[in-house]
Design a protein that fits this description.
The complex is a heterodimer of chains A (272) and B (295). Chain A is mainly alpha-helical. Chain A contains 14 helices and no strands. By secondary structure, chain B is mainly alpha-helical. In chain B, strands 1-2 form a two-stranded antiparallel sheet. Classes of the chains: A mainly alpha (272), B mainly alpha (295). Chain A: It comes from Actinoplanes couchii.
Amino acid sequence: MRTKVVLYGLLLVLCVPFVFPTWWMVTSSFKPNAEIFSPSLWPSSFTAEPWRQVFTMQPFAQQYFNSAYIAVVVTIGTLVVASMAGYAFARIRFPGQNVLFLVVLTGLLIPSEVTIVPLFRIFNSLGMVDTHWPLILVPMLGPPSVLATFIMRQFFITLPAELEEAARIDGLGRPAIFRRIALPLARPALGAVAIFTFLHSWNLYLEPVVYLSTRTRYTLPQALTQFTDAYQGQLWNVQLSAASMTAIPVLIVFVLAQRQFIEGLAHTGLKG
Amino acid sequence: MSYWTTRRRDHLTGYLFITPALFGAAAFVFVPLVLVVWYSLHEWNVLADTFDFVGTENYRRLLDDPGFPAVLRATGLFSIGLVVVNLGLALALAVLLNQRLRGTTFFRVLFFSPVVVSLLAWTIVWGFLLQDNGGINGFLDTLGIDGPNWLRSGGTAMASVVIVQVFKNVGLNMVLFLAALQGVPQELYEAARTDGAGPWTVFRRITLPLISPTVLLTSIITVVGSLQVFAQISVLTQGGPGNSTTVLVYYLYQQAFQFHAFGYGSTLSVVLFLIVLALTVLQWQMRKRWVFHEN
């Protein structure tokens, strides 16, 4: 009994730095400017004005849409590319397979920060600077996609061969086996890859800062840093309102599907 | 018998299936990697539109750069601090949540939640809390403690950035550790206890060796991730005070995209690549010595 009380006490104290910042972000976003630095857990004079200012100071709805559609496109694209390649590397035998897999795998050693200068030059010569193309193409086909391919391969390799043999005898070709048998079984792995990919795109910061210069094309992470007054002083309550709007929808999805989130990540990232 | 045997068709399908991934790796990883080495041998000014071969000039500049040792120091401090605190806390939380207690799922959700909070939102609210007149010093004030200006004084800026990042992502490693802990066979614990081993001995002699593959995996992920940190530095400290938190990627960004020294920026990129490569190879070597078993 004593140990239980100690353990619960410990857990509660440890929770503070994980939960309190999110609480502080949301409650402070409703505080008027005069109250913003008061250490009160609840706004004493509640105002929704900062939430309105978010939309008048910047094309925030447009920026929100930019982030959302880029993340969705990148996630779907990555799922297609990575599940196909992962399946082929795991289940199909073809000449040069191992060498090609090793080549793809070495891509894991090269973070996208290393290649940002040449990629900037390439996209510049293609006229794609200040467009969303770099933010879509590089994550969808570059290093994050390599990681996704690896995770998918590790999953497909665990499927029993009998399943496919039975389908073969029934006369199914490879593409049909992949689509109708392997993919439905891979849903946990696909879910984990989707979550990773979505969050990665949603959080992307260096790339938008490097590539984008037009406000209406900004993505959320970049937009969040732009809420300043004429003297470059931060408008904290407006900034925190925008931050809350960025964080809360994903948090709600997470809370509703926490089991799939956590266990999906734990069990697919691990089996390596 | 037609030319298209099942085996041949399989080969074709295999190549077709990997084509997008292979194209992506070539176009967005390997070609740029070769280019960055090539660029690092050039003096390249975008504004003046010049691109001249200068040989090892940029590498000599690197050795003479008075700012560079500080950058390496900041990068090392950040990475070591992050890996040690992150893995230590992740393991401690996983052990706590692995106890037979009601409500551990609830706490697991709370500890994991910052992972899904937008990185910039998380960083901004911590930046707000760590202001000189912010929430943390306000709280310390009520205890009669005069807190430092966390992000603006040399002694605390780096530690603050590390801590903010640890709380953001430690949940990920915690979950991986927890899965590993749950994979340790119960019989081993019981056998050890029957032999009279204390909890600490059990942890060191049984738990730690059995979860060592996970320790290796998480440490590789965390080390490589720590070298990529940019947004946190850019929002919280802008590399300061002085250049005490100017880590390599931030310095690279400044040189290439603020000072338009793309040649020198490429040289710094090559250095970043070599560090990632060396650390990964090193950890892979350590696996042979320390990791208990693998299947």
